[in-house]
Amino acid sequence: MIDPRAALRQGLLGLGRSDSVRRVVERAPVSRAALQRLIAGEDTAAGVAAATELLASGRLATVSFLGEDTVDVAQASRNRDAHLAMLRALQEAGATQRGAAEVSIKLSAVGRALSEDGAKVALDNARQICEAAAAAGTTVTIDMEDPTAVDQTLEVVRDLRADFPWVGAVLLADLRRTEADCRDLATAGSRVRLCKGAAHSQPDSARFEDKRDVRLSYVRCAKVLLEGKGYPMLATHDADLIDVARSLADKELRAPESFEFQMFFGIRPEEQLRLAQAGVAVRVYVPYGDRSRWYRYAVHRMAERPADMMYVRRSGSTKG
Ligand SMILES: Cc1cc2nc3c(=O)[nH]c(=O)nc-3n(C[C@H](O)[C@H](O)[C@H](O)COP(=O)(O)OP(=O)(O)OC[C@H]3O[C@@H](n4cnc5c(N)ncnc54)[C@H](O)[C@@H]3O)c2cc1C
């Protein structure tokens, strides 16, 4: 029997690849409002403004550049330069102290998918971004984009960590391998963002397909990370998982500064503030950049939770 929610999710992910649908949705007033709520803006200044506003409210930020598709080395260099400009601007705004605002990198944006030497180009560019982050006194997290490229992405993290031990890795709880990866990465100083895993359109035997199984896997992985010696970054909007993770952290006598929660810009801002006011570290993922990428980003958020479009429409002025 067809699961209507899975069908809707597949439909939305399919729409994300259609230019004509994108143009229509971008022009619709509700959609435009929704996009603007989920994305800080087009340029460095907009990303910095959103990050500093979050910091002023007691939250932390990880700023993520949405660049054009990277088709050649020159584009990869331009995307790298956008990250460097962001780090300079965050530092000038006083936002990088003690890693309060950091950057998240997509390896594809800095060259990973290029047919010639893509892995090397991406590593070189990521290394330059890490050098700039070190100079600014902050950190970098490497997003996990493609669940089929986990080994390749973690290898880049390992290479970077040789010089920059604070580089953050991302693990996805919907992958069956992730509990073992958590054990490998729960070492002293190791920053690990744990996510459920982004919505996908095709069944895959390497993943847990059932949402309940993904949540159970998330709990097992969070337990491994919180019991370990690293710095867990628990990225979820799921209230039950947040409660479980807080209980596990209490049980492990974790100091408040030894782990953090992460959520998306514009999603559950009241909960972000509530946690921050309770003394829990909350970092908000702030996307900004090229308008042509806004739609694809927002469609992925909608595919995870189609009701979000209504939610972002109803929400008041508590931006971020
Ligand atoms: C900071 C951050 C970084 C991420 N980085 C990556 C990455 O590098 N690679 C990757 O593949 N994925 C990444 N993700 C995406 C992640 O994998 C999930 O796809 C996404 O977070 C949705 O999962 P969820 O845990 O929030 O649960 P969901 O199943 O989407 O939501 C769980 C529950 O949260 C609540 N909720 C969710 N949205 C709302 C809302 N708008 N309003 C009210 N309640 C809501 C509801 O109770 C819902 O049932 C990242 C997510 C975050 C937050």
List the helices and strands and how they pair.
Blueprint: H1 4-15, H2 19-27, H3 29-38, H4 44-56, E1 60-66, H5 73-92, E2 101-105, H6 118-136, E3 140-142, H7 150-163, E4 169-172, H8 178-185, E5 191-195, H9 211-227, E6 231-235, H10 239-251, E7 260-264, H11 269-277, E8 282-289, H12 291-304, H13 308-314
Parallel strand pairs: 1-2, 1-8, 2-3, 4-5, 5-6, 6-7, 7-8
What is the gist of this entry?
The protein is α/β, with parallel strands linked by helices. It has 13 helices and eight strands. It has one domain (41-289): Alpha-Beta Barrel (TIM Barrel), CATH 3.20.20.220.
How would you characterize this protein structure?
With 320 residues, the chain is α/β, with parallel strands linked by helices. It has a single domain, classed as Alpha-Beta Barrel (TIM Barrel). It has 13 helices and eight strands. It has an eight-stranded parallel β-sheet with strand order 3-2-1-8-7-6-5-4. Helix 1 (4-15) runs antiparallel to helix 12 and helix 6 (118-136) packs across helix 7 (150-163). The longest helix has 20 residues, at 73-92. The N and C termini lie far apart (39 Å). Mean pLDDT is 88; it is low at 311-320. The structure holds flavin-adenine dinucleotide.
